[in-house]
Design a protein that fits this description.
By secondary structure, this protein is mainly alpha-helical. It contains 4 helices and no strands. α3 packs antiparallel against α4 (83-103).
Length: 110
């Protein structure tokens, strides 16, 4: 910014502190601490295994459709420069694909 607006770096820093352009000043103006309440309550899916039978059944998911959507989303993420997120999504899709394959009956199954 100093080069763009042809001002000295020291002047820019002095003005940033004076006018509150710093991260510390911004955080002080906005309460960035989380609000405690219902949103902070853990999801019912995150609990002990003892409560597993009490949870409602999850909605059915078409594995092929989920894998296709994950691949498309991963391509979009890579295009936005978010390769780490894309890789995590692709690993999840690969795991889903392996799980789907493992549950299919093989030859000789009734």
């Amino acid at each position: 910014m100093a080069l763009r607006f042809d001002v000295g770096l020291a002047n820019l820093r002095r003005r940033a502190i004076k006018e509150g352009w710093t991260r510390k000043a911004h955080a002080g103006k906005h309460d960035l601490k989380p609000i405690r309440g219902e949103a902070d309550a853990p999801s019912p899916a995150i609990g002990t295994l003892e409560n597993l039978d009490a949870l409602p059944e999850p909605p059915p998911v078409d594995a092929d459709q989920a894998i296709r959507k994950a691949a498309r989303r991963a391509a979009w993420l890579i295009g936005r420069g978010q390769a780490a997120e894309a890789m995590a999504l692709l690993r999840a899709a690969e795991t889903l694909s392996r799980m789907k394959w493992a549950t299919k009956p093989g030859p000789g199954w009734g």
